[in-house]
Amino acid sequence: MTTTTQASPVPSRWARFRDSYLVYSFKRDLVAQVCLATFVAMVLAAVLAPWLAPMNPYDLAQIDIMASELPPFWIDGSDPTYVLGTDAQGRDLLSTILYGARVSLIIGFGAVILQAMLGVTFGLLAGYLGGRVDAFLMRLADIQLSFSTLMVAIIVGAVIKASFGGAIYSEYAVIILVLIIGLAEWPQYARTVRASVLAERSKEYVDAARVMGFRAKRIMFRHILPNTLSPIFVISTVQIANAIISEAALSFLGLGMPETQPSLGSLIKSGFDYLQSGSWWITLIPGAVLVVLVLVINLLGDWLRDVMNPRLYKG
């Protein structure tokens, strides 16, 4: 009598993800759940701004200058049409916040994607090839890190604005800010990825890939890179918040988004001159939205860092 043993079915990727420690930790962390729900809601509101916003702040026909500086609905003298009031140009503040959050998120995500592309590539090359390539790229990163991101952004932004004029700068402001912020922060990724590659390149699977004759490019991107994704994800959450803050700071200094193209930073700047005249909502409400957005991203980053830290892994 013969008995046959059946191999247990291999769980699907979704099943492995559902049973992972990441999901286990998320289900038991109320702060992470609230932060993720808030972040998703803010992203969806920004993406769906053309359908959710009562007015289009880019459409001059919908702007009523006679309705400027109207207070929010809970203050006497408000207009029910404008729930959060209006700014100095007569634009509905709720609409400008929704459109402005979309611009800030586009700049934040775009800058981080550029940072990751440059930093991960340079980090892989420096860690795997070593030698002169490593020395050159790391000295370049050290030089970049010796200057603050905001100072580099201010200098480059001022030079571009003076060279091509304010009209050209305003037209391509989003692209320019993505390039400025992205090029200023790539060393954060490069140094982290390099450290991970130095730990991975001496392991057996890398030696096996070399023996099989795989090229260095395939070994770096197909074998080593997937094992360095955890710190990359953690850095990205922090860098998105930093990029949004950098955009707001540049806009406040007059080197970011123009007032005709609302972002959270340009909205804060446009209402700053009206604080002492009593129209505090023009600055404080977009400022509160910016604080909440950056806070939930940072809290999610802290949670992700703790979950992906192998020293804190509970099994």
From TrEMBL:
Keywords: Cell membrane, Membrane, Transmembrane, Transmembrane helix, Transport
Domain ABC transmembrane type-1: 101-301
Protein family: Belongs to the binding-protein-dependent transport system permease family.
Protein localization: Cell membrane
UniProt cross-references to InterPro entries, sorted A to Z: BP-dependent_transpt_permease, MetI-like, MetI-like_sf, OppC_N
Protein name (Swiss-Prot/TrEMBL): ABC transporter permease
Natural source organism: Modicisalibacter tunisiensis
Primary site of residence: membrane
Membrane topology classification: Multi-pass membrane protein
Regions crossing the membrane: 30-53, 103-128, 140-160, 166-184, 224-245, 280-301
The organism's place on the tree of life at top rank: Bacteria
